[in-house]
Structure formats: C-alpha cells, structure tokens
Amino acid sequence: MSVISDPNTFESNILIKITKKKYAADIQAGKLYMNKLGYFRKLEQDGVGDDQEGLMGAAQNGKMIWNGEVVAEILDIKTYLDFPVFCALSVPLTKVGDNKYEFVIPKKLLKEFMYDKSAEYVLIAIDKSEFIKRIDKALSNQELCGHSGNVSYTDEISFFPKKDIDKMILRKRTKFAYQYEWRVFVECHVDDHFELNIGDITDISQQIPIQDSDQKVKIEVFEA
User: Fold this and answer.
1) Were 184 and a residue from 33, 148, 154, 190 both cysteine, which residue would form a disulfide, CB within 3.0 to 4.6 Å?
2) What's the CA gap between 75 and 78, in Å, rounded?
3) Under a CB-based contact definition with an 8 Å cutoff, are residues 90 and 150 in contact?
4) What is the pTM of this model?
5) Phi, psi of 192, rounded to the nearest 5 degrees
6) Is 126 helix (H, G, I), strand (E, B) or coil?
7) What is the pLDDT, as a whole number, of residue 25?
8) Sequence-distant (≥ 6) Cβ neighbours of residue 54 within 8 angstroms
9) How many other C-beta atoms lie within 10 A of the C-beta of residue 51?
10) pLDDT of residue 162
C-alpha cells in the first residue's frame, strides 16, 4: 500500500464496482461495458455527472471557454467525449487500530449508484493489480491503447495537449472527490459504447449483495 495524503490513509489494492445484479455476472465474466465519456457528462442525477467532463484536450485555432466565459486563446482544441470509459471506486484504507484498516462507502454515494429502487444491487470487490493486468493484456491483443488510474480532483483550469490525454480524462472537480473514482479508458471513438472482454475474473472478484442505499457499507481489512 502507498500513502495518499493522510499518513494514516493508504492506497489499497481493492476496486469496487456497484451495479445492478443483472449486470454483475457479465462483469465477473470479464465483459466490461464502457459508456463513452459524454454519457457521464449528461447524467441528470445531481452529483453524479460532471458537466465539465472532457472539456479540454485536440481541431484548429480556438478559444478555451470555462463556465461560459472565454479564458484563453489556444491552439489544437477538442473534447474527447466519445472515448469509452469503465469506472469503479478505488478504496483508500484508513488505519483505525493496530493492524486494522477500514473504508466506509457513504450513503450519498450508495444512493447515486442505487437510483433504481426496483432493482437488486451488488458490490463487486476486485483485485486491482490483477484486474489492470488483464485489461492491459486484452487491449494489447486488440492493438488498442488505453489508460487507467485514480481520478484526481481539482478546480484548477488547465489545458492538456493530446499526449497528456490521460491527465484530462482522469480528473474531475473537487465537489466530486467523495466518489474516489478509478477509471480505465480506451483511445478509440465510439458512437455509444464499447465492450472490452478481458476474460473471466471470478477468481479475483467477489459479489456482495446490498439491500439498502440508506445504509453505510464498511470495509474492514486486518493485517496478518
């Protein structure tokens, strides 16, 4: 584990995907359904979609517009809203005792995922490092370029050239920092979505049912 900012909080090797039960089997079978980035900008639920997703990145001379105002004249501008993205929650563990760590998924976040009250939901816990290896192998086999990493949260206005596209897509505003988001995206343009098959991951993942979005989900880890 690596230290994040608080000396008692550490980056763990756990990813979490909260999804409807009917989709969970496909994910564990390694079928990653990836919506394009523009989908996440258009989510209507308050707090889920960031309307400034993928704003900056590579057409010709243009202007940088922020909140409706021109803030700079720039070259080579484009949004990458049609790049497919798979999202999960990266679990930072906080030390709460001798050899004991925990992470609590807040009710706010659960409610955003569990918006359909008529559906059953599950939490899928995934071995992060092995998951990334299988994604990288699948991308390589298909001769595709992709990137993965934790989303950084900032309100700084920045411009990223095409070579730094990962920095642009792996960032959101600070108001979304509670989401602890991790992403993998593929450098290809899609009309709607993309499906990446990385092979069965039941050996590195586990399903846990969630009954109520008003509860808190606590993850506890004990060191041997």
Assistant:
1) 148
2) 10
3) yes
4) 0.80
5) -140, -60
6) strand
7) 96
8) 37, 38, 41, 79, 80, 81, 83, 168, 169
9) 11
10) 67
Backbone angles phi, psi at 104, to 5 degrees: -110, 125
Residues 6+ apart with CB under 8 A from 174: 153, 154, 155
Residue ranges, the chain, pLDDT below 50: 1-3, 44-60, 75-78
Q: Could you give the C-alpha distances from 8 to 3, 103, 177, 178, in angstroms and in order?
A: 8, 12, 18, 18
In Å, how far from its chain's centre is CA 185? 9
Q: Specify whether the CB–CB gap between 126 and 91 falls below 8 A.
A: no
> Is 163 strand, coil or helix?
helix
What's the confidence (pLDDT) of residue 3? 40
Strands 193-197 and 31-36: antiparallel
Partners of 63 in the beta sheet?
73
pLDDT at position 80: 62
pLDDT of residue 56: 44
